């Protein structure tokens, strides 16, 4: 195993990944055949693609498996929602340590240009109508992503609030039962609609949404800046500078990988 593999997939991350993807034993009744490429090497190669932004064909041979093998493993794990499950496992570890702060959560979105089109793309109103997609996210008070989603770029931000809040998984707490509802949710003027305020109140979530034409977004920014910082953290995975994946599930997979890496960095501090 190379040093690059150990650096991209440290032992702590590998242990968590094994809780999601147990070892696979390949049995060939006829015998023979090549030995199956290691999961750790394939995972390191996938993380390299996500963080460096290179194409699959540009994957260096230092990892061992060919780029075709790595891509097939990525597609297989994406169909099985491995990245969302890994993200949830890491969130559980953070919650058990008390590192998740539910007192003030924030919601926001960011639009990306879709280089190849595909499902969940649409004309981006902020990019002269060029095809694009949008990443929606909710973070805790520290900026750790706890719920993610994707849509076409022309979908209004307000339509993503309810699915994102419902999509928060039940996360372990240091004391008491699992938790999946923030105490307060901060949002910008794109979410200023009476039905969203009523929906949040009905679920016991206090809201702090900027009101159109009444208040400035500057005061709200005292607490919303954390989600803006998380957006920049997501951009640290260069594969998310644009949407290069034609398949929506692959684009969502890279978003999940980026979120899992962000949370894992906090876990290892």
Number of DSSP strand runs? 6
Integer average pLDDT:
91
Uncertain runs are none
Q: For the record, give the distance between the C-alpha atoms at the N and C termini, rounded to a whole number.
A: 25 Å
Strand content: 5-15%
Structural summary, described in words:
By secondary structure, the chain is an alpha/beta fold. It is 42% helix and 13% strand. It contains nine helices and six strands. Strands 1, 2, 3, 4, 5 and 6 form a six-stranded mixed β-sheet that branches. Helix 2 crosses helix 5 (82-97) and helix 3 packs across helix 4.
Concise summary:
This protein is an alpha/beta fold. Helices cover 42% and strands 13% of the residues. The mean pLDDT is 91.
Write the layout of secondary structure elements.
Elements (H helix, E strand, L loop, with lengths): L2 H6 L2 H10 L18 H14 L14 H13 L2 H16 L7 E9 L8 E2 L7 E9 L5 E8 L8 H6 L17 E4 L6 H9 L3 E4 L7 H19 L12 H20 L2
Parallel strand pairs: 1-5, 5-6
Antiparallel strand pairs: 1-3, 2-3, 3-4
Helix pairs in contact: 2-5, 3-4, 5-9
GO molecular function, one term: DNA binding
Organism: Streptomyces sp. R33
Keywords: Plasmid
């Amino acid at each position: 195993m190379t040093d690059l593999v150990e650096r991209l997939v440290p032992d702590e991350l590998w242990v968590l990944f094994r809780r999601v993807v147990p070892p696979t034993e390949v049995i060939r009744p006829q015998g023979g055949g090549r030995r199956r490429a290691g999961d750790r090497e394939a995972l390191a190669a996938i993380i390299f693609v996500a963080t460096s932004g290179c194409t699959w064909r540009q994957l260096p041979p230092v990892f061992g498996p060919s780029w075709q093998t790595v891509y097939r493993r990525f597609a297989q794990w994406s169909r099985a929602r491995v990245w969302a499950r890994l993200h949830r496992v890491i969130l559980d570890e953070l919650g058990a340590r008390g590192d998740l702060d539910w007192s003030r959560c924030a919601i926001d979105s960011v639009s990306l240009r879709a280089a190849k089109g595909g499902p969940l793309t649409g004309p981006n109103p902020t990019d002269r109508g060029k095809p694009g997609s949008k990443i929606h996210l909710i973070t805790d008070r520290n900026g750790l992503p706890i719920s993610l989603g994707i849509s076409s770029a022309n979908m209004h931000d307000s339509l993503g609030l309810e699915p994102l809040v419902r999509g928060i998984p039940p996360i372990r707490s240091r004391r008491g039962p699992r938790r999946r509802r923030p105490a307060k949710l901060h949002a910008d003027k794109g979410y200023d609609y009476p039905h969203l305020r009523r929906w949040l109140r009905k679920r016991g979530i206090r809201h702090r949404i900027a009101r159109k034409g009444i208040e400035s977004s500057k005061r709200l920014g005292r607490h919303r800046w954390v989600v803006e910082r998380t957006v920049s953290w997501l951009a640290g995975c260069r594969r998310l500078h644009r949407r290069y994946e034609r398949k929506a599930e692959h684009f969502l997979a890279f978003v999940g990988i980026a979120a899992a890496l962000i949370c894992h960095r906090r876990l290892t501090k």
